[in-house]
Amino acid sequence: MMNIAIMGQKLLRASLLLAFGAALAGCDGASPAPAARPPLEGARIGGPFTLTDQNGRTVRDSDFAGQYRLLYFGYSFCPDICPVDLQKLMRGLAQFEKAAPALGAKVQPLFVTIDPARDTPEAMGAFVSRYHPRLLGLTGTPEQIAQVAKEYVVVYNKVEGSAPDRYLMAHTQIAFLMGPDGKPLAMLPVDDPTTDADEGAPDKVAAELAKWVK
Questions:
Q1: Model's pTM, two decimal places?
Q2: How far apart are CA 199 and CA 195, in angstroms?
Q3: What does residue 196 show for φ and ψ, rounded to 5 degrees?
Q4: Distance CA 140, CA 53 (A)
Q5: If you write DSSP's letter for every residue of 185-213 in order, what string do you get?
Q6: For residue 166, which of 8, 50, 143, 161 is within the disulfide window of CB 3.0 to 4.6 Å?
């Protein structure tokens, strides 16, 4: 598992370089100005998509117009990273909802699989139901998933296992907060090694949501 984690972190660093290089062309990488502008303002991240949720319904990015979107890419068969990240994110969202119910209701959490071969709507439904009652699990064809991952500067690859159906997926470990217009605002903290799903990480997620959700 350590090798997979290391590979995931290498992918993360590579995608961050891409996101803050070519994908963030025109963005200022300096410290936030006193006006506290969103750190991903102007980034070329995000775009239209058509996917399928855990209930078998077609879901488009335009369905969330006017809502903030908390977006994370992963897969339901992930043995460690994805479950921990989702715990951090969804507990942070729950804290934010409790502190500011009206604002919390404006945030739609989305979990997009990078393993569509195994992540059927049924598999996604069983997985996302563990974390938050409003979390949507989105899957699709391999082509649809590849396209939406490209739009969000997410990279992933298959790591063969002991059997054809026991493979792992190395993937970028980033959670995006998108604005009501579908444009990127910030990355939410999921990869802080000083915190875990129970101690501090949800607080940091809730604090970041409070900065940008208005």
A1: 0.82
A2: 6
A3: -125, -170
A4: 9
A5: EEEE----TT-BTTTBHHHHHHHHHHHH-
A6: 161
Q: Is 82 within 8 Å of 212 (Cβ atoms)?
A: no
Q: What is the DSSP letter of 22?
A: T
pLDDT tens per residue across all 214 residues of the chain = 444 444 444 444 444 444 444 444 444 455 444 568 999 999 999 999 999 999 999 999 999 999 999 999 999 999 999 999 999 999 999 999 999 999 999 999 999 999 999 999 999 999 999 999 999 999 999 999 999 999 999 999 999 988 888 899 999 999 999 999 999 999 999 876 555 555 678 999 999 999 999 9
Contact 114, 171 (CB under 8 A): yes
Q: Are 107 and 66 in contact, with CB atoms under 8 Å apart?
A: no
Distance CA 85, CA 15 (A): 17
CA 40 from centroid of its chain's CA atoms: 14
Estimate the crossing angle of helix 81-99 against helix 201-212, to 10 degrees.
Answer: 50
Pairwise CA distance, residues 129 & 134, whole Å: 8
Q: Which domains does the chain have, with CATH numbers?
A: 2-25+47-212 (3.40.30.10)
* SS3 sequence of 111-164: EEECCCCCCCHHHHHHHHCCCCCCCEEEECCHHHHHHHHHHCCCCEEEECCCCC
CA distances from 102 to 46, 70, 90, 105, 107 (A): 25, 16, 17, 5, 10
